[in-house]
Amino acid sequence: xxxxxxxxGAARTAIVDFVEAVTEEGGTxxxxxxxxxxxxxNDGTLWCERPAYVQAMFVIRRLGDxxxxxxxxxxxxVVKALLAGDLETAHQYGIEAIAGVLLELDAGRTTEEFTRDxxxxxxxxxHPRFGVRFRELTYSPMLELMDLxxxxxxxxxxxxxxxxxxxxxxxxxLYGVPPDDIVGSAVQVSFERRDGRVVLVRQAxxxxxxxxxxxxxxxxxxxxxxxxxxxxxxxxxxxxxLEYAHTGERPSLCLxxxxxxxEREYAYAGxxxxxxDAEPIVDTASRLGWTxxxxxxxxxxxxxx
Amino acid sequence: xxxxxxxxGAARTAIVDFVEAVTEEGGTxxxxxxxxxxxxxNDGTLWCERPAYVQAMFVIRRLGDxxxxxxxxxxxxVVKALLAGDLETAHQYGIEAIAGVLLELDAGRTTEEFTRDxxxxxxxxxHPRFGVRFRELTYSPMLELMDLxxxxxxxxxxxxxxxxxxxxxxxxxLYGVPPDDIVGSAVQVSFERRDGRVVLVRQAxxxxxxxxxxxxxxxxxxxxxxxxxxxxxxxxxxxxxLEYAHTGERPSLCLxxxxxxxEREYAYAGxxxxxxDAEPIVDTASRLGWTxxxxxxxxxxxxxx
Lengths: 305, 305
Known about the structure:
The structure is a homodimer.
Chain A: H1 10-23, E1 37-40, H2 54-69, H3 71-74, H4 77-83, H5 87-92, H6 95-106, H7 111-124, H8 140-151, E2 155-163, H9 164-175, E3 182-185, E4 187-194, E5 197-206, H10 214-223, E6 230-233, H11 239-246, E7 253-260, E8 267-268, H12 281-288, E9 291-294, H13 295-298
Parallel strand pairs in A: 1-2, 1-6, 2-3, 6-7, 7-9
Antiparallel strand pairs in A: 4-5, 7-8
Helix pairs in contact in A: 7-9, 10-11
């Protein structure tokens, strides 16, 4: 199997063995193609999430534009803190205040307009440390894994805590994953007719909970309707999704990307946005026998650029 | 193009012309494969919905079983009316009372158990008039249409007012549509661990609104993330979905199945469950230039059995 960005080692072996086992006709671990469902987290699993989520940088940029046009917005303390990059102060105003400000930004935009906004920004915006566009900071080994899975008749889904519309703006181009195979956090939209055309208009409210933790498993069922046999993540927010794959009746493979490479990328313990006190996912992985992927040791190449 | 169950006529011509136009490389109406999204209603569009929705018969059967086991349930007036098939009386207790009783039936079942229940029932249950299994009462011309669309690199989705888990139980086998390509009404599920396994457990509450009317368009965006270019339905509950396809920037085809064949199937005007006073969909179709498919005139064969 062609996984040129992967070094020989336990992680690569686990992947190769698993894919061989579930695709070998007549083998005891054979899984029919229809049930070969793979779910992959996005931020920190498929592309770089440091120093901040790509979408957070997009939203802050949009907030800056809005504040420039609307002085009364710029005067709000929470907005000032956000624009200064002072997240600690911003958090003192509460997550509802932050969410309220950010959700308001795109309220009234149609889904089609929002997708264009996001795609346009992503076409040019650059990473502050690496100096290349964010879109070039996808992980080469994970793209190879996705290709391998598709070649072996897996269906590959992205299950992200990020906004589903944001990831959809680039999912096909970056990962070969079409919009309907992306599951994420969502805002409410309303059905409207404008100039005789039906449009769907973003509201300043989330649709249900953020897609992190238990909701990842629930939304996999709502959207995909089958239990995955392969799941990959990098934070405690992916734990329940991995557990869901792990405890099915089929053989499964659970991968945890460990960011232990300060030189080529970053070194940090993946934490859950919605549950900062959760057990580090690498510890969960050791406890449950999941496969930890060390960026430093297992990948001879990090970025796809 | 092979559409053997379709008679020559305006409907068949509209389908053939549309598919040719959007798939002809270099043509003015060409639509790239990624945007060839087709959405089809299920009940009354892909299979027979009379004398009652197939799922309603499943639920009444489950209610009968539950009432036999639990006398206090059998004594409820709304349950008595439902089991007697007296929907008029049942409706006097209000739609919430009906929904409450029915949603309670499967509360506590895991999604995997429910899928098996539904698949088991559908494997054997027979239609009261035609004496064959419900699953044999899919419409041959619509299966041919789906095959044609897939051969031309369309993605074919079912967008149903029915319960998504119910339709998923047979979607792949009956229509070649995998679970993740089925969008429907949904109940809430909870994330639970039972005997060390993650399971998703059905609750006695709907998740959002029934997937009828404007929610069909909203849920197409939530689930598929692209505006369809082909939509087919048979009731006023499909109107907004068809309008959504019709008013995009791409060429579109909107099909309305007209049940005008009392001899081979049924003759009735498709009404919206959630909006009984809505304009008949065939009138909407005439007004907006959509293609009406007359079961009597356009189909030389109705059922796939």
